[in-house]
Amino acid sequence: MRFTKDEIRKAMLLYAVTDSSWLKEGQTLAQVVEDVLANGATFLQIREKEMEHGAFLAEARQLQATAAKHHVPFVVNDAIDIALELDADGVHVGQSDIVGKDVRAMIGPDKILGISANTVETAVAAQAAGADYIGVGAVFPTSTKKDAKSLSREEMRAICEAVDIPVVAIGGINAGNLSQLSGSGVDGVAVVSAIFAQPDPGEATRHLLELSRAMVASHG
User: Fold this and answer.
1) Which residue of 88, 103, 108, 178 has the smallest Cβ count within 10 Å?
2) How far is CA 186 from CA 2, 42, 122, 202, 211, in A?
3) pTM summary value
4) Domains of the chain by range and CATH?
5) Omega cis (within 30) before 169
6) Could you confirm whether 206 is annotated as catalytic?
7) Which residues have C-beta within 8 Å of that of residue 192, sequence separation ≥ 6?
8) Which pLDDT tens digit goes with each residue over 96-107?
């Protein structure tokens, strides 16, 4: 694996998930991602639901090169075929994407595999399926997953205690509520609009990184 287990755990601290719908006029996703990684984001996932295959591939290649320059893990959301075509660092999949599939076998032993979970049972199953980390959420109400039920801090702690692999919290997290995750046991936060919808994504990244460090340190 290009990234060790310890490096993956540390990379959960501030996990940036792209959303080009927030781009302002004249901006490119590659420019914003460069700014975000230069200001301390520790992990990068490309998640572009509305982009057609060719455009997605071209965009992903650019982001992959930027992530490599900053030695930040780069994974593709859901699209296992594209992750393999790019030779990305890995893939992140949801519960519906793993039904009837052995994703670990599909991507090989050296790629990063992230799996979404929202219960102890699905988290334990994800670990058994070969996940390197788990994305747990939604932790707050979120516009990207309108039907997602918010998890309590106790539920998150139970998930963290049930698995040995890193856990990153996702869903509605922003600078105003991130500190509420203190004591939950998570290894970091994954954010979309808290970075990409902000007037200055680089500055937003810097601030979120400070908050996430303090939150993780509070677990004791």
Assistant:
1) 108
2) 23, 15, 16, 23, 13
3) 0.96
4) 5-217 (3.20.20.70)
5) no
6) no
7) 17, 18, 19, 47, 144
8) 888 889 999 999
